[in-house]
C-alpha cells in the first residue's frame, strides 16, 4: 500500500514537472520570437503567424484566429486566419470584419471577459457550422480599450480549460505589444521623414549658390581689415556692418589658414549668415561681435589653447544664436512652444547647437576626420554653445568656480572647463563693454527686442521681458560673473 502510494505521488510529481518544463520551454520560445521581431529580423505579420500557430499547437486546438481593432467607432477588426494553401501560416484579410457579424467576438469585446463555449451553448451565439464543436475566445486590454482578441476553435480530444485561456492571453499579449511597437515604428518613420524634409528646407534656405561663393571669395581679398581689429575695444561702425562676413573670413584665415577645413569655411560662413534672422539684437552682428572677442583672446593667448579648442570656440561663437527667434527661453516655456517641450532646459541653446550640427554635417567641414574625432568636435561645440545660457551658469558653474578657488588641489580639466565657460559667457555680453556710442546702440536694440517679446498677445511680462528692469539686467549678469570669477 505504501509503495503504491509513493509511486502515485512520484508519477504525479514527474507529470507536474514535465508540464512545467514544457510550459517554460513554450514561453521561452515566444520570447525568442518576440526578440526576433524587436531586432528587425521578422516583420509584424510573421510574428503574429508564428506565435499564434505555436500557441495553437501548444493548447492542441484545430484552428486559431487573431483580431486587432482597427476602427473602434465602427467596431471593425483586422482578422488573421489560416490560409487555404498554407496551413502553417496566418494571413491578414485585406478588408476588416464587422464585430456585429460574430456574437462571440461581440460578447468578449463588450464584457472584456474570456468566453469558453461548447456543445449546445454554441447555438446561443448563432454558431451554425456543424464542424465547430468548441470555441475559446480571449480578450487583451481593459473594458473600454480592448487591444486584441484571440479565438481558438475545436480542442483535440476534449474541451478547452482555464489553462488554455491563460496561454492564449499570454500569447496575445506578445502580439499586442508587438503591434504597439509596430505603430511606434511607423510613427517614427513618418517623423524621421518630416525631420529630414525640415532639415533639407533649412539647408536650402541657408545654402549659398556657387556664384555667391565665387563672388565672395573674389571680393574678400579686396577688403582690408581694420587696424585695431585685434583689440578688445574695436567694434564695427556703421560703414563696417556690411563687411562683417569678410571680416569673419579674415579672422578664420588668421587662425586656421593651414587647416584642412579652411577651404570650406567661405560656404559655411555664408550659410551661417543666412541662418540668422533679421531681429533687432539676436542677429549676425551680435554673433560677429561675440566671435570677435573670442578671436582677440585666441590671438593674444595663442599658445594657451590647442588647435582643437580654437576651432571649436570660433565655430561655437559665430553659430551660438543661429536661427534665434527673438524671444527668450522663458517666453518659449510660458507660451508652451514645441521647442520648450523638445528641450526642457537651455531651450534656445540646444536648438542653436542642433542647427550648427546640421550645417557642419552638410558642408563637411571636418569630413577628413575619423568619425570618433568628428564626434568629439561636435560635442565640444555643443557644450560651448550651452555655456551661453547664463541662467544655467549662475546656478551651476559659478558655485563650482568658488569651490575651485578655495580648493588647494588644482584640477586642470575643471579649470579649463570653467575658463571656456567664462569666455563664452563674457564674450556673449561683450557688446555692453564697448564705448558708450556702441554699447548704447546695442542696449537699445536689445531693449527693442525685449519690448517686441513683451507685447506679444496673451503673454504676461516675465522678469526678462519687463522693460522697467531692462537697464539693470545686463549689469546684474556682468556683476555675477565678476563676483564669482
Fold topology:
Layout: H1 2-38, H2 44-59, E1 61-71, E2 76-82, E3 90-92, E4 97-98, H3 103-111, E5 115-118, E6 134-142, E7 145-155, H4 162-206, H5 210-220, H6 244-256, H7 265-275, H8 284-300, H9 307-319, H10 329-334, H11 338-342, H12 347-363, H13 371-386, H14 390-405, H15 412-428, H16 436-454, H17 470-484
Helix pairs in contact: 1-2, 1-4, 2-4, 4-7, 6-7, 6-8, 7-12, 8-9, 8-15, 9-13, 12-13, 14-15, 14-17
Tell me what the CATH architecture of the largest domain is. Orthogonal Bundle
- What is the makeup of the main sheet? 7 strands, antiparallel
Strand content: 5-15%
Q: What's the total helix number?
A: 17
State mean pLDDT (0 to 100 scale): 85
Oligomer: single chain
Which topology of the largest domain does CATH recognise?
Catalytic domain of cyclic nucleotide phosphodiesterase 4b2b
Termini gap: 92 Å
Q: Would you report the number of β strands?
A: 7
Radius of gyration: 34 Å
